[in-house]
User: What shape does this take?
Amino acid sequence: MTEQENMRAFEEKIGYKFKDERLLYQALSHSSFANEKKGRKSNERLEFLGDSVLSIVVSNYIFHHQQQMPEGQLSKLRASLVCEKALFEFSKKIDLGEHIMLGKGEEHHGGRERPSIVSDAFEAVIAAIYLDGGMEPAEKHILRFMPKEFDSVTVTPFRDYKTVLQEIVQENPEERVVYALVDESGPDHDKTFTVNVMLNSNVIGTGKGQSKKNAEQQAAREALLLMGHKLD
Assistant: This one.
């Protein structure tokens, strides 16, 4: 299948036709692929934007569908719907892994089945739709994956250390938590990310992971432990 055929097939699966196909091309281009193709851009910048668009749409959705739920529970529910595990499961519904363009090394090492790669591409596709057609089609695309009903399993599928840390910090309105990527090492098919979590510019935790999101979670976990917070 050629790159053009690949993109056309994916457009049919998501039910959206791009006016600027360069956006879709970039969204489906993993860094390992971009590194092998001179002048090509990876989907990392789109992933950054898509993460924000996803958060806004999901926040709005659960805010209106869970009108009796307190803020703390809303945060946990949102986190469960935008975490790597959830996005990987959503991606399977549109066979996203089959359409990601990978470098030879990443292809050889099973990159199409790596949750970090596929979930990042999921966010990049959201950003591409948003930039191409605006918020309405991006929201329509995201909402197709949202549950129509919520239960306790949906609310707490994983340990969200970032939300726990944020809830503690919010008790002091003047405090601010920021996550910063400080190192990225290893080959494209086996990268390790290192992230610092900072409280008012002071590093309070460091985490490592095979995705930026996992590294952030581990940094938040370390910060909670250093604060004396008991973790389950």
About this structure: Strands lie at 177-185, 192-199, 202-209. The longest helix spans residues 44-65. The mean pLDDT is 89. The two ends are 48 Å apart (CA to CA).
